[in-house]
Amino acid sequence: MDSLNLDLINFIIDKKLDKELLRGRFGLEKENTRVDKDGHLALTPHPKAFGNKTDNPYIQTDFSESQIEMITPTFNSIEETYHFLEALQDIVTQELMETGEYLWTSSNPPVLPRDEDIPIAHMEDPLEEMYRTQLGHKYGRKKQLLSGIHYNFSFNENFLKKLYEASLSKDEYKLFKDGLYLKVARNVLKYRWLLIYLTGASPVFNKSYIEQCVALSDHLDEDSRYFPNMNSLRNSVCGYRNDKPFNVSFNSVNEYVQDLQNLVQSKELLSAKEFYSPIRLKPATGENPLQELLDNGIAYLELRMFDLNPLFKNGISLEILKFIHLFLVYMLLKQDEPFNEDEQQQANLDLDTLMMEGLQGSMKVTAVALIDSMQEMLRYINPDDQPMNTLLEHKKNIILNPALSYASIVKAEIQHSSFLHYHLIKAKQYANHSLEAGYKLAGYEDLELSTQLLLKAAVKRGIHFELIDRDDNFVVLTKGDHKEYVKQATKTALDSYSTVLIMENKIVTKEVLKQQGIRVPGGNAYRNLQDAMLDYEVHREKKIVIKPKSTNFGLGITIFTNNFSIEDYQRAFEMAFEHDRTVLLEEFVTGKEYRFLVMGDEVVGILHRVPANIVGDGVRTIEQLIHEKNKDPLRGQGYRTPLEKIQLGEAERLFLKIHSKDPSDIPRLGEVIYLRENSNISTGGDSIDFTDEIPISYKQLAIQSAKAAGATFCGVDMMINDIEQEATNENYSIIEINFNPAIHIHCYPYQGTNRKADDKILDLLFGKIDG
Amino acid sequence: MDSLNLDLINFIIDKKLDKELLRGRFGLEKENTRVDKDGHLALTPHPKAFGNKTDNPYIQTDFSESQIEMITPTFNSIEETYHFLEALQDIVTQELMETGEYLWTSSNPPVLPRDEDIPIAHMEDPLEEMYRTQLGHKYGRKKQLLSGIHYNFSFNENFLKKLYEASLSKDEYKLFKDGLYLKVARNVLKYRWLLIYLTGASPVFNKSYIEQCVALSDHLDEDSRYFPNMNSLRNSVCGYRNDKPFNVSFNSVNEYVQDLQNLVQSKELLSAKEFYSPIRLKPATGENPLQELLDNGIAYLELRMFDLNPLFKNGISLEILKFIHLFLVYMLLKQDEPFNEDEQQQANLDLDTLMMEGLQGSMKVTAVALIDSMQEMLRYINPDDQPMNTLLEHKKNIILNPALSYASIVKAEIQHSSFLHYHLIKAKQYANHSLEAGYKLAGYEDLELSTQLLLKAAVKRGIHFELIDRDDNFVVLTKGDHKEYVKQATKTALDSYSTVLIMENKIVTKEVLKQQGIRVPGGNAYRNLQDAMLDYEVHREKKIVIKPKSTNFGLGITIFTNNFSIEDYQRAFEMAFEHDRTVLLEEFVTGKEYRFLVMGDEVVGILHRVPANIVGDGVRTIEQLIHEKNKDPLRGQGYRTPLEKIQLGEAERLFLKIHSKDPSDIPRLGEVIYLRENSNISTGGDSIDFTDEIPISYKQLAIQSAKAAGATFCGVDMMINDIEQEATNENYSIIEINFNPAIHIHCYPYQGTNRKADDKILDLLFGKIDG
C-alpha cells in the first residue's frame, strides 16, 4: 500500500495549518425503526408531537412511516454533534415511551409484517410518497427498512482557503477544493472495508426479513439468522445496495454528475438519490443537488455505511466518531491513488470478501498497515493526542483479534438470547436511560434547566434553535419565517418591557393589583420617619412587617405579630431606613404559599414548597432516610437538577437539635421530620404539585393578576388560608408576581405530574401543533 | 371677640390628634389672562399644545378664551401643591412664550378691548358656552376677566374619623364632618376681611375696565385707576360679586342646598355655580354637586377670595398659603358663633368697610386679637413651629402698618410706573424665570431629567400623571381610559421584553443587526483560549479590540492598532478571560461617534459629544473661560442639569500639562482648548445637535437598526467616517443600541435646538394632539 503524502503533511505544518486541518464541521443522521413493546415494527403514524415531518429539521421519517430519522445540525466539533444526537435520541425516546414504543437498536429490521403491510411514509408532497412506493416495488419494502447512520463532514473552510492560497494553485478555488474532497472520497471508497469492519454491528437478522436472504442464512435459533463472517447486513449482498454496481466516476465533479444524470436518463435509477453509494458528494444546499455541485462544488462528504450499534445507547460511540474523523483526515494525507472502474470493482470485491470471509490474509495486513500509517500521521500533525493513539492501538487489536469486533460481541451476546429479545432488551434499557435523562438536553447541561426544557420541546416539534449567547441562556427560535428571541425560557417578546418593570417593583405590583380589586397585603410606603410615625395609631393592633423597599438578604426587616409600642415601631423604621430611602409597612399575611405558573390565559401549574424533610419508616434513622431520599435522580447539587439533595450540615443539625431530635433517631412509620425552617428548593425542599387540587376561583385570581400587569408569562405567589374553601375577598393575598418564572419545577416536581410548561411556551410563541 | 375653644383643643391633644389636625389635603386653582407683548388681552385661541381643554385636568380656560386656568391635583402638603402650581406656571409660560404671549400678573384685567370683543371661551359643550354668554350679558365680560386663586382644603380624613370616634357623637359621621366644615366656613365668611386685607394685591386697574368703575375712580396716571384704601378690586363693589348679596345659609348642608336651589328656581341665579360666595361647600365629585352634598356631605372647602399677587412669580407665596392653612385650622378651633342673616350682612359690611376705609379702629383691634389668638393656638398645637410664629408676628406688623401690606407695596411701585407697564414688566421677568427653569419640573427636581421633561410634556397636554414609585422614576400616565406605565421616561409598553434583552446584550445586538445587513464591528466571541488562538492568523493585520464580554470599567481590554505578535495576542486574551468566561474580539472602528435618538419610525435627534473645552477670546485665561462657560444655567453638578460644569481638577490640569498648557494661559481668539480626553457629558463635555446635518442615509440606518431589534425607543450609537458623505456599506458602523436613551440631552443640548423628544414619547404612547 501507499504511504503518507509527506510533502503535503510538511507543507501543512510549515504553513501552520496543522491545527486547522483537524477542525471541521460535522453532522449526523440516524434512522431507527419504531417498534412496539414486543419488538414488532410499529404500524402507528409518526407521532404528532414531532409536528409536520417535512418542517421538522431534526426529526423526520425516512422510507417508512415507522422509520424515524434524526438529523443533527452541523457543529464545529464531533463532540457537539454527538451530544445533539444523544439529545435527539432522548427526546424521541421519551415521546415514544408515552405510547409504549421504542427505537429499535439494530440496523437490521425488527419483526416485520408482510412486505405490503409495511407502511410507506405518508408525505405531504405526493411525488415524495410516489418515489417511496416505487422504491418499495423495486427493492422490496423490507430492504428499505435497513437503518443506519450517515456521517457528514467538511474540512474547516479557513483551512481549505489557506491551503489553496499557500499552494499557489492555478486552478480556481472551487476546483482545488473539489479535488481534495474527491481524493478523500476515492480513498474512502477504496478502504471502506476497513471502516465497515471496525463499525459493523449487525451480524444477525430476524427471519421476517427478505425471504431469499433468510433462505440462504444460518440459524442461531429459529428466529435469529446470520451468515458466517458477515458483520453488517446492510453492507452485504442482502443489504442496502443498488441492483447492480453502477460505475460512477469520482475523478471530477463533472464526471460524477454526468454519470449520475446518465443513469437517471437511462432509467437505471429513479433519481440521483437512489444511487446508494457508501459516500456521496454533497453541495451546500439541497434544492437541485447535481446542478449545485456543478455550480458551487462540493460542500461536504456524506458517509453512508455505518451500522446502528446496539452496544451504544445512541447507536454509535463518540470514540468511533472521532476515529472516523481521523480516518477522513488520513484519506486526505495519503498518497493519491488511481480509482477508476477497475479499482472500484476491486473495492466492491474487497467488501464482499470481508462479508463472506471476514478479515483475512492480505487485507488483515493492509488493515494493520493502515492503522500504523494513521498513527504515523498523528505523530506529525497532533503528537499530543495520546487518547487517539490509544484508540488506534485498540483498533489494531480488533483487527488482530476479530472476536473483539462489535459484530462478534453482538453475535456472542445474541447467542445467549435471541435477535429479537437481545435488541428489545437493549431498546428498553436505553429507553430508561433516556427517561432518566429527563429534563436534560444532552450537550447543553450548562444551560439553565428551564432553557434545556424549552429547547427540548422546540427540537421535538421541529422549531430550529440557535444559542445566540450561551452564557445568558439567550436563544433564537425559528420556524419558517417566524423568529423569536428568548432569554431564560420565559423572557420573550410576548411580555412588554413595562410589564416586566411592574413585576420587578413590589410597590408598583401591589398598586396595579389593588387597582384591579385583587387582594394584596395592605400597607404603605414611607419616605421619611415622620410620616411613618403619624400612622402608628392606625397600625398598632395589626400584624405587620416593616422592611426596606429593596430587601437585601433580610436586613432591616422587623415583623410584629403582637401589640407593639411606639418605641419599637420607631426603632423598626429607623433600622429599615438605614437600608433604603423608602420603607414599606405591610400587613403580615398568614396562610400557605402557592406558586401559580400563568401562561397566557391559563394556569399551567401550581406548586407548594415544603421544607426539606423525610418520612419515617420505623426502621431507618433520619440520616439513613436522608441518604435514601437523596437517591432520587431529580436531586442533585448546584442547581443542575430540579431538586437539591438534602444536606445534613450545621443548619440541619441545629434545626433537629432545637426540635429535640438527633440524626441517629429512628422516626416512627409515617412521621414527618423537617430538617429546615425555610421551604426553598435550594436547601432540599420538596415541590408538590397542587394544580388539580386548588379551586378554580384561585386560578382565576392568578390569571387576573397576570392580566393586571399585562403579563403573558409569570409566576404568581399567592397566600391561601385554606384550599378547601373557594376564594373570597378575605382568604387569600397575592404577595408577588414574578417575571421569568422557573418552569422546570412544574415539569419535574417532587410530587406530581409534568405540567409541560415548556410546550405551553412554544404554543404561545408559535401556535399549537396542528392536529 | 370670642376666644379659642380650649375644650376642643385639649380634647384633640388628649386624643393625640394634634399632629393629624395639621395634616390635610390641598389644591389650588389659578386664573391668569393671557396678554400680548404690549399687555393687551390676547385674542388668540387657547394654545393647541394644551390639548383638548375639557380633557386637560391641569390647564383649562375659564370664562374667556383668553383666560387660562391652572389646576393642581390635591396633595397632602401645601408645599407639594405650591410646587405643582409653579410647575404649571412654568409649563404654561414656556408654551405661551413661543408665540410671544405672557401670563398677566394682576387679578385686574390687562388692557381690554370693547366688552363684546372679549372672546368667550370656546367650549365643546354648547351649554357651557351658552352659560358663559349669559354671564357676559348679566355681568359684562370685563368683570368676568377678574382673575384669582382658589384654595381647596380638607382636613385629614383620619383626623376627622378619629375625632368623630373620640367625641362619641350620636350623629352619623357625615353630619359630624359637615358640622365641622360648616363651622369653618361660617368663621371664614365672618373673618374673611382679614384674609382679604392680608392677601389683597390689586389696588390699581386699567382705564379699559368697566366704565362705571373707571368713572368713579381716581387717577394714578391717565391709564392707571384706583379707589383710595381699596386693596382688592375683585373683592370690592366693582368686583366679582353677585348682583345682590344672596342670603344662603351655612348652618347646615340641607339649608345651604335648599337656599341655592331656591335661587336657581326663582331665576335669580343661572345655576348654583353662579353663586359667587367667597367660600363654597364642595362634594367629592362634581357631577351633580348639590345632590352629592346632600348624599355624601362636604368633602372640602373652596376659598375663592385670593388675588393674584404680582410680587410673586406664581401669583402667591408659599408663606401665605401656609398662613391660610393655619387660619383655617384656627377657624375650626375658635368658639363657634352664630352666623345668620344679620351676621352675614355684618360680614359683608365689614368687607366693604375695609375696601372703603382700610383697616381702621375696632377692626384693626380685632385683627390683632385674631392673630394673637392664632399664636396662642399655635403654642398649644404646634409649639415648635417657630417659622409660623414669626410669620404671624409679621402679619401683625402689617396690620399695624398698612404701608407694609401687599396692596400698598404694589400701589407704591405702580406709582413709579403705570398699571400696564408695572405688570407687564413683572410678567416678562417671571416669564424669563420660567424659561430658565427649562427642563425642571418644580417640586420634582429629585426625578431624572428625562422623567421631569416627560411629566412636563404630559401636564402640558393634559395627560394625568401619578408617581407610582418616585425613587424609581416610575409613573402612570392616564388619559381617559388609556393608562400607560412608564419608567425612566422611555421604558414603556411599546418595547417588548425581548427587544430590551437584545439591546442589553452586545453579542446579541450585533448578531441581530448583522442578520439585517447592518454594519457592525466585525469580530468573534470566544469561550476558550484555544479557539481564539486558532484565529490569530485571521486577525493579525487588522486593528482590533480584545475585551471581556461584560465590560467592567475598562478592565481586561486591549486595543491593537498595529501588527501584533501571537504572544501579545495570547496575553490580551488571557487578561480578558480573567474577567469573563466569554471574550470578544472586535474590529477597532474609526470615525466620529453620534447618538441617534430613534422613536418609532423617526430619528428625533442626533447628538455628537465633544470633550470639555473652552474657546479662546484672546483676552481671558483658560481658567476664566471655564468659569465663564460654567455660568450657563444648563450646567450644574451631580446630574441635575443637562450639562455638567467643567472642572479644573487634577485630571484637567494633567491633561493641560500633557498638552503643554497651563490654566493661566490666554488662548488666542477662536482657539479651542480641550480639558479632557473623553467626551462624556458627566465630565463637562458638550452635546452638539447634528440632527439637521447628518444625511438621511444614516438616519435610515439608525431606524433600520431599531427595527431589527424591534425597538420603539432607543439610542443608536453610530461611528461615521465623514458626515459629508452618504452612508455606504463601508463608512459607518453601529457600535451599540441602547434602550432607555436619555432624552434631556436632545431637548437641552449645548448647541442646537430642543428636539421635543418628550412630546414624541407621548405622541407614540397616546397619539398626537389633534389639530
UniProtKB/TrEMBL annotation, chains A, B:
Residue ranges constituting the ATP-grasp domain according to the UniProt record: 510-766
InterPro entries: ATP-grasp, ATP_grasp_subdomain_1, Gln_synth/guanido_kin_cat_dom, Glu_cys_ligase, Glut_biosynth, Glut_cys_ligase, GshAB_ATP-grasp
Cofactor(s) of this protein: Mn(2+); Mg(2+)
Annotated stretches, region: Glutamate--cysteine ligase: 1-355
Pathway(s) per entry: Sulfur metabolism; glutathione biosynthesis; glutathione from L-cysteine and L-glutamate: step 1/2; Sulfur metabolism; glutathione biosynthesis; glutathione from L-cysteine and L-glutamate: step 2/2
EC numbers on record: 6.3.2.2, 6.3.2.3
Single GO cellular component term: cytosol
Any one GO MF annotation of this record: ATP binding
Keywords carried by this UniProt record: ATP-binding, Glutathione biosynthesis, Ligase, Magnesium, Manganese, Metal-binding, Multifunctional enzyme, Nucleotide-binding
Catalysed reaction equations from the record: gamma-L-glutamyl-L-cysteine + glycine + ATP = glutathione + ADP + phosphate + H(+); L-cysteine + L-glutamate + ATP = gamma-L-glutamyl-L-cysteine + ADP + phosphate + H(+)
One Pfam short name: ATP-grasp_6
Domain of life (superkingdom): Bacteria
NCBIfam families recorded: glu_cys_lig_rel (TIGR01435), PRK02471.1 (NF002688)
Assembly and binders: Monomer.
Family the entry assigns: In the N-terminal section; belongs to the glutamate--cysteine ligase type 1 family. Type 2 subfamily.
Function: Synthesizes glutathione from L-glutamate and L-cysteine via gamma-L-glutamyl-L-cysteine.
Listed name of the protein: Glutathione biosynthesis bifunctional protein GshAB
